[in-house]
Every structure is written in structure tokens, then in C-alpha cells.
């Protein structure tokens, strides 16, 4: 490869094995859910700890989403220019520092700033994990790695609410942010010791005009936008649920923080089973053929959410639809992520960033709308099916486009 050629940024010979990329990629992606899911069982206690309102504590999630969504637009392109390793380490330093700030926050205002900065720090994980897969692998192999990342990733949100509930119950909410600080340090250490650089740095990409050209190209691509919006509708609903479920399960249904954590295993467990099923099915079917069945599960879960308009909510009526929806997301993500990134090997960081921004942005918008509903159950019955509809409509548009032949 000609290193001097600024249009060729990926290192063509894989620098890491598929297994190592899967493990490191899963670790990077897990940062976001851990920063969110580990915290959610503490939300009712935070209200009392700072003597503030429920609305202000919901804002801590909204600001986390905002920092996560907006900073991705910077993290990916900067990693295209400077390299994946230094950028992930810098953003993890922000995440760790923000976790310490939250730990020692004297009031809710400082706490809100800390949560925003945590989202900024965590944002690089999603953008860079997908970019390093696209840097090194193609086609079904890329989908298989995305699936492996999904399997490993499912463990983080499955365990995080449970661990968070136990820590809140026995060690107080501050222990959550000490745990996040240590996790940030661990990610930096793994990156330094175990990750090889996957691109040739090109500082020309730091120019504002180059950045705008990259995003302009992505926004103009119907292939990218329909694929990315399919994922945004599917995964954005999971992020939206994070702002609603603590108040449904703990306030409406009266569950304890530890009980909430255990209940959330139904969500992450369903995603985990879906990812395992996907891995088995990909031995006999192309990953792209499994997207439509996945969207079928998403539609079924969405329809069950609508039934919450009638009758009293229960654990099964709330978590059953979430389980079906999460199972469907696991079938949709590998192929659609690979499809979205495939045409853009030279701006993989920017493409991954914009895709992540759309996902988190969807969660941010829907989470903000959820705060306007007086009843979180009705918010779930309206907003989650809306996200499922966006995913399905986007995929129908994607299917109408010419088939992209990956290089």
C-alpha cells in the first residue's frame, strides 16, 4: 500500500485477528451502555440525594444522550485523521474524569455537567469499534464480527442494571461512578497494550472542508441513510426505553433498584439469545436475509406495546414486548451495520459516527418526548411503536435501491 496516498486510509493487511477485533470492539461498544445502564437503578435515589425533581434526574440521561450523540460526530472523523488508538484513549480519559466529577458532585448542576461529559467520553467507543471492523474486514465476515460484538455486548447491559441495583442498595449511588472510573482506566490499558492501529493517519482530514465533504457525501447517499435509519429506528428504541423503564418498573410497579436490575435481564437476555441465534443462522444464510425476520419481531413487540393503552401494566406486559423487540434488533444490526459502512472505506470513522449519531439522536428525541408524557406507560405505548415503524419503513426504502457490490 502507498502510505503517501491520502485517499487510502485503511491498512489493507489485517493488523489484528477477527477474535481480537471482536473482543476489543465489544469492549469499546460496551462503554456507552455501561455508562447508561449501570446508572439507571440509581435514578430515584439521585432525586433524594440532591433534593431535586424527577424531571431534573431524567435530564441526566438526556444530557448523557446529547453528549454521546453530538461528540460522535467529532470522534469518528478525528480518528480517521489521527488514528483509532490515540482518539479512543483520549475520549476514555474524558469518560474517567467525568465519572470522578459525578462521584464528587456537590449539587445537581455539577452532576448534570458530569453526565454530559460522560456521554462525550463514551461516544468514541461506538464510532471507533465499527470503524476498526470496516478497516479490516468485509462482507459476511464483517457481519459475523458485528454479531460477535453483539453477543459480548449483550453481557454488559444484562449485568449493568443488576450490578447497579446491588451497588446502590448496599454501597450507595456514588459506588456506581467509582466503578465507571475504574472501567475507563481498564479500557485505556487494553487499548494501549492490545490494540494495533488499523489506519494510516491523514491529518488533512482534520480540515473543516474535508469533514463537511465527508458528511455531505453520507447525507446524500440513499444507501447509507436508509440503512442507518433502519438501525436508528431499531436501536434508538432501546435507548428510549432506558429513559422510561426505571419509572415504569420502580415507580409504577413498585420494584426495588435490585429488582429493576434483575428485570432488565429480560431485555439484554433476549438480545443475547437473538445474537446467538444470528450466529447459528449465518452458517446457513447470508446475514442480509435475516433482517426482514428481525423486523418482524420488532413489529410484533411494537404491537404488544400498543396494548398498554388498555388495562393495568404488569411486569410481563412491559418486559414481554421489550424481549421480542430486543430479539429482533439482534437480527437486524449485523447486516445493516455492514451494509451502511460498506461503500465508505476511506471515511469509515465519519460513517460510523453519523450512524451512531442517528441512533443516539433518535433516543435523545424520543427520551425528551417521553418526559412530556404524564404517564411513562403511555409514553412507551406511543414512542416505542413509532420507532419500530421508522425501522421498517426505512428498510422497505433500502430494499428498493440497487444492490451495492462491495469492493
From TrEMBL:
Membrane-crossing segments per the record: 21-39, 59-75, 87-106, 112-133, 145-170, 176-195, 215-239, 259-278, 290-310, 322-342, 354-372, 378-398
Extract the Gene3D superfamilies matched here: Multidrug resistance protein D
InterPro entries noted in UniProt:
Efflux_drug-R_Bcr/CmlA, MFS, MFS_dom, MFS_trans_sf, Sugar_transporter_CS
Q: Which UniProt keywords apply?
A: Cell inner membrane, Cell membrane, Membrane, Transmembrane, Transmembrane helix, Transport
What membrane topology is annotated for this entry? Multi-pass membrane protein
One GO cellular component from the entry? Answer: plasma membrane
Residue ranges annotated for the Major facilitator superfamily (MFS) profile domain, each copy included: 18-407
Protein name per Swiss-Prot or TrEMBL: Bcr/CflA family efflux transporter
Species? Pontibaca salina
